Give the backbone structure.
Amino acid sequence: MAFFEASEGPWPALLIGVPLLAAFTAIVTWRAARLLIWSGAAVVPVLSVVLLARVIHAGGLRLPIGGWAPPLGIAFAVDGLSAGFIVVTGLVMAGVLLFALPQFTASAPGAAESRAGYAFVPLVFLAWAALNALFLSGDLFNLYVALELLTLSAVALVAIDGRSGTIAAAIRYALFGLFGSLAYLLGAALLYAVHGTLDMALIAERATADGATVIAGALMTAGLAAKTALFPFHAWLPPAHSGAPAPASAILSGLVPKASFYIIVRIWFDVMPQAAGTIMPVLLGVLGSCAIIYGSVLAIRQEQLKLVIAYSTVAQLGYLFLIFPLAGGGGEPQPWAAGAWTGGIIHAFSHALAKAAMFLCAGLFMEALGHDRIAGLRGAAHHLPLTVFAFALAGVSLMGLPPSGGFTAKYLLLTASFAGGQIGWAIVIMVGGLLAALYLFRPLTYAFTRRGLEEREFARVPRPRQVIPLLLAGLSILLGIASAAPYDILQIGRPHAAVEGLE
Amino acid sequence: MTEMPVSSAQLFGLCGAALIGIGLYGFIAHRHLLRRLVGFNVIGSGVFLLFGSTGYRRVELGADPVPQALVITGVVVAVSATALLVALIIRLAQLTGSARLPEESPGGGR
């Protein structure tokens, strides 16, 4: 991480402090939830954008907490990658909280407190604080703490409605997640034993391809892959993500797996690119390809909309892992040589926005219909045109059709694979796009069918709630139309390995 | 008195590694969720022991306090995770009458 040392106050800590304070306030006075959501959704995204602006201006920040420089102290490290993730997190979280406002907060002063309403708001704020802490952190142990905080709040979000099926899904998720955390911690302990520090920038200066570093990297990667639901660790994801309430699913599917993926990227590209060897990148790529094909095929076979979207997450997360074999492309640095790395990250951003929009749409369909069976979506385009439009827009991004963010991402990945002569990955990317079209056209076909319209009962859904998924889906399209901006932002503090490739 | 074949730091590290192995076996081999949770905690203890033992590598400098501080944080995290999982397992057992995941219950596979 080549940071320009910029003098900066400790204000980025507010990105963690404000949501954390909101979470605890929401626990104490759940009646203030409405006020907290409005102020949180207004303040934190603004702080995120200010951070991004500072990073663009200063070219990467390094903030030793309390003025103590590593290795004695702990530092925040912010570059284009982390600032980009923080902004996307802010947008999705604000959208989800505002969407959930009528669902989970008391509408009347005397209304009874509901279990889901009591739990939802603090947990979402907690997850937000954990995500921001994770993206800000420049220290492997801080990452561990943030990751655990995130896993615990995510597990609780899965279990929120308390049916036996979702409790089982939450336990399965927790077992995978906690095992992953321990593997990560063991890796961090080994790195500390070898290098005597946990600061990522300092380890990056000291790391070589020695045995302990390689084993530590493998342990951390395996643990984080289990948390990212990389094939074959994906079994926990579909029941957990489809069983949670729709706004919670939007966070779980859109943001939470990206956090562990972000750490894998940091470890291999920033901390120890020289320890990657030749097998690890290919192995991650192969597992990612398996996830793309397997997740898509299972998504096609589902009868319930939320399960389709959840299996689609398994498939879309697979694309992220293609950056490990594809980074570097043709070998010698070219102007587009960081294409695969940038493409993978843009894919993470656009998937976060599109998948959150899709889960919110599924939530609206469930409210209008009382179920989410695909065959029951007939006539939805007539009764809920805005929601179906938002779903279709998000689908355009997931399928990778132009001019969406998903298209930019897949275009960059494809260019890198052709330029590097690695045609196999390109075939997987294209087949994955076709399969995505198959599983997304099925619900859309039903939604546009007008036959049997009369006997269907659609409950009314207020229009402002329909606008939120539309905005999120629109942002994922905008990421493709204005793709130069995210591309440039990601080049700030970009690791050399993104250009030269792992090995 | 004969010289010990391994230093005390190495001995603690090896014990940690052994605990990780034992815990891993319990975590994977058992179906009852509380047993798996105990397995998780044994792995955790092993990792903490191993982490702690790395603080005593350079004897002439004395013990390195950083791993101790980190292990305390790790213990807090593990306790919270255990508490959450126990609560979930109790709720599952109340709802289904079994402290196993549905697909792993005898005869109750879905």
